[in-house]
From TrEMBL:
GO terms for biological process: L-histidine biosynthetic process. Belongs to the PHP hydrolase family. HisK subfamily. It comes from Candidatus Scalindua rubra. Its EC number is 3.1.3.15. One of its GO terms (cellular component) is cytoplasm. PANTHER family: HISTIDINOL PHOSPHATASE-RELATED, HISTIDINOL-PHOSPHATASE. This is Histidinol-phosphatase.
Length: 272
């Protein structure tokens, strides 16, 4: 089993040393993990959102050294990049400097509003929920079309605080699935939603079912911001994938996708 969404204390809002995340992954009997801390945003550090640009080399070398120290588990070098229209070349320049195995593209902002940040929760009161959902899915499609990302992160994060649209999302979801398919991105089954007010995996069963129809590959991620969250609720993530008839998940190496059978996941994950 893999956990491809793991943060580190470099971003300023996660706790624990990187080595503790690795140890927890080994304890959980994961075969492979990937660190995917927040790629520097221009003003990320001041707001405790991301690491600083000059911390990126340390992050990369720490992953490399953990890889050597713990041969019993495969450790991939990933990163989670905020997608904000206009920051494409900034992301590109940063990511080509390092040997990333994969890049997760995540939409956390709609027009500078961090819709998933607890401090910006009041922004929801000033906006129409249906319009927010529409914009969110439009940004997801845009992020996939940049071809900068291998994996689209938590692809219905907009539901985090429980806001639900009153209109049908079907057309938006189908359009998004088509773009994901066309650009060859994977999506993640991210269990962190279970630890948030919405109390649901990202994405929902309904969305995942649709993406399955379009054959969009999946990875698994806990979005751990503390070592204890590594591999958390993966029994539920796997059963969700099986429920909508996924038979495979994917892994990445040097930004190349490899298919794995979901059957190959041992029962150890069920007893975390
Ligand atoms: Zn974070
Ligand atoms: Zn665990
Ligand atoms: Fe995220
Ligand atoms: Fe994350």
């Amino acid at each position: 089993m893999i956990d491809y969404h793991i943060h580190t204390n470099l971003c300023g809002h996660a706790t624990g040393e990187m080595v503790d995340y690795v140890k927890e992954a080994i304890r959980c009997e994961l075969d492979e993990i990937g660190f995917s801390d927040h790629l520097p945003l221009v003003d990320g550090k001041e707001k405790n959102l991301t690491m600083l640009p000059d911390e990126l080399p340390n992050y990369v070398s720490e992953v490399m050294s953990l890889r050597k120290s713990f041969p019993e588990i495969r450790i991939k070098l990933g990163i989670e990049a905020d997608y904000i229209p206009g920051n494409e070349s900034y992301i590109k320049e940063l990511i080509i400097r390092y040997p990333f195995d994969y890049v997760i593209g995540s939409v956390h902002y709609i027009d500078k509003w961090a819709f998933d940040h607890p401090k910006e929760l009041s922004g929801w009161d000033e906006r129409d929920v249906n319009a927010v959902y529409e914009k969110y899915f439009e940004l997801l499609r845009k992020s996939a079309r940049t071809s900068l990302f291998d994996i689209i992160g938590h692809c219905d994060l907009v539901k985090k605080f429980g806001h639900r649209p009153s209109t049908e999302l079907t057309k938006d979801l189908i359009d998004t699935a088509k773009v994901f398919k066309e650009y060859g991105v994977a999506l993640e089954i991210n269990t962190s939603g279970l630890r948030k007010p919405v109390n649901e995996i990202y994405p929902s069963c309904e969305i995942l079912k649709l993406y399955r129809e379009y054959d969009i590959p999946i990875v698994f991620g806990s979005d751990a911001h503390t070592p204890d969250d590594v591999g958390r609720d993966f029994d539920r993530a796997v059963s969700l994938a099986r429920q909508v008839a996924y038979e495979e998940f994917v892994t990445f190496e040097n930004r190349e996708m490899k298919h794995q059978k979901l059957d190959s996941i041992g029962n150890s994950i069920l007893s975390l």
